[in-house]
Structure formats: structure tokens, C-alpha cells
Write a structure and sequence with these properties.
The protein has strands at 3-5, 8-19, 22-39, 44-62, 68-70. By secondary structure, the chain is an all-beta fold. It starts with a strand and ends with a strand. Strand 2 and strand 3 (22-39) form a beta hairpin.
Length: 71
């Protein structure tokens, strides 16, 4: 009837640093997906690409032995 393809690629990275009472983390993730759906018998030819990117920064502050704040 037709041919369908749906490859998905994902990459991410995270870095961390420790400075005194602060633990800093930063990173990101990116994914992309290609959709190809061809059904010549029905006259359908769908070709789309989806992308998503996310970034973050986090600070972990150790106030004392019992209290840790994340921000």
C-alpha cells in the first residue's frame, strides 16, 4: 500500500560545578523527528519534521547540614 518512516534523534548534555556551598548544574536536550508517510494508492504524501529544544540551569544551595534549597 505505501511506505512509512519515523526516525527519532535525541541528544543531551549536562555540566556540573561545585563552589563552596553551591552546586551548579546546567544542560540542555534537543530532539528531532521526521515523519514520512506515503500511500500512493490513496494519494497521500505526508512529510513533516518536529523539533524540540530545552535548556536548564539549577543552583543547589546547602544552607546547613539539614537544609538544602534548589533554585
Amino acid at each position: 500500500y505505501g511506505d512509512t518512516g519515523n526516525p527519532l534523534s535525541v541528544t543531551d548534555a549536562t555540566l556540573g560545578w561545585q563552589r563552596g556551598r553551591h552546586g551548579l548544574s546546567a544542560g540542555g536536550q534537543m530532539w528531532w523527528e521526521r515523519v514520512r508517510d506515503v500511500y500512493a494508492g490513496y494519494g497521500r504524501d505526508i512529510r513533516q519534521t518536529f523539533r524540540n529544544t530545552g535548556l536548564f540551569v539549577q543552583d543547589e544551595w546547602r544552607v546547613n547540614r539539614r537544609v538544602v534549597l534548589l533554585g
